[in-house]
Every structure is written in structure tokens, then in C-alpha cells.
Amino acid sequence: QVQLVESGGGLVQAGGSLRLSCAASGRTFTNYAMGWFRQGPGKEREFVAAVSGGGNTYYADSVRGRFTISRDNAKSTVTLQMNSLKPEDTALYYCAARSAPTVYSRYTEYDYWGQGTQVTVSS
Q1: Which of 83, 2, 4, 75 shows the shortest CA–CA distance to 36?
Q2: Residues 6 or more apart in contact with residue 51 via CB below 8 angstroms
Q3: Mean pLDDT value across residues 74-86
Q4: Is 103 exposed, middle or buried (0-12, 13-18, 19+ CB in 10 A)?
Q5: d(CA 52, CA 13)
Q6: Mean per-residue pLDDT for 6-29?
Q7: What is the mean pLDDT of the chain?
Q8: Which residues lie closer than 8 Å to 74 by C-beta, 6 or more apart?
Q9: What pLDDT does 112 receive?
């Protein structure tokens, strides 16, 4: 069992930045691929970014160049640095863990989820 706790959401103006953090506990962190997903009002959950157990990173086209995902295996944490935020980035952001070191963009491939942290970007 893996427990995930997100933090760092909030309200920011368009063009601003936020940093989301996810603390994991329970199992060997490096065995898990980690991802960030988001779900806006009336929308389906969508892939944002992921990092493999080996540190390879992957991004949705909509955030590539603006968001950066990273992991600290010593601290069992994953972060999402979000820059140049847009109103369309407004969503509930979830941290997820997959019980394998390789990443996927489909949310159904992830086994553990945090409770979510709200990001609101005003225009």
C-alpha cells in the first residue's frame, strides 16, 4: 500500500507560478512511476506529467515547456513546478503512483492516488 499526500495548490494570476508537492509513504519509492493528473470542472481526468523510476520525464503537449516534474527518491517526493500558468490550467490536481517503474499517460494504469489539490488560475 502507498499513501500519497499532495500540497501546494492555490490561487494565482495568469502568468504566475505554483509548485505542487507529493509525499509518498509505504513502499520502495523507486519501484513506482509517479504521475500528475488533473480534472477540471465538467471534464475528464487528464494526464499532465509523469516521471519513471529511473527519472525519465514525460509531459502532455498542453504543458510541455511550462511545467517540470521531478522526483527525489531519498525523500520519496515528487514535485510539479508550474510556470506561465493559464486559466485553462485550473483544475484539481492529483498525484498518482504506478506499481511499476515505467510510465503511462492513462490514468487507469495508476494504482494509488492522493486526495487532490486545487489549482485556480485567474485571468
Answers
A1: 4
A2: 33, 34, 35, 57, 58, 69, 70, 71, 78, 103
A3: 97
A4: buried
A5: 31
A6: 94
A7: 95
A8: none
A9: 95
Question: Phi/psi at 89 (nearest 5 deg)?
Answer: -80, -5
How many C-beta atoms lie closer than 10 Å to residue 122's C-beta? Answer: 11
Taking residue 102's Cβ as centre, other Cβ atoms within 10 Å add up to: 12
How far is the C-alpha of 87 from the C-alpha of 85, rounded, in Å? 7
Q: What is the DSSP string of the chain?
A: --EEEEE--EEEETT--EEEEEEEESS-GGGSEEEEEEE-TT---EEEEEE-TT--EEE-TTTBTTEEEEEETTTTEEEEEE-S--GGG-EEEEEEEESSSS--S-GGG--EE---EEEEEE-
| Residue 30 pLDDT grade (very low, low, confident, very high; cuts 50, 70, 90) | confident
102, 10 Cβ separation under 8 angstroms: no
CB 32 within 8 A of CB 52: no
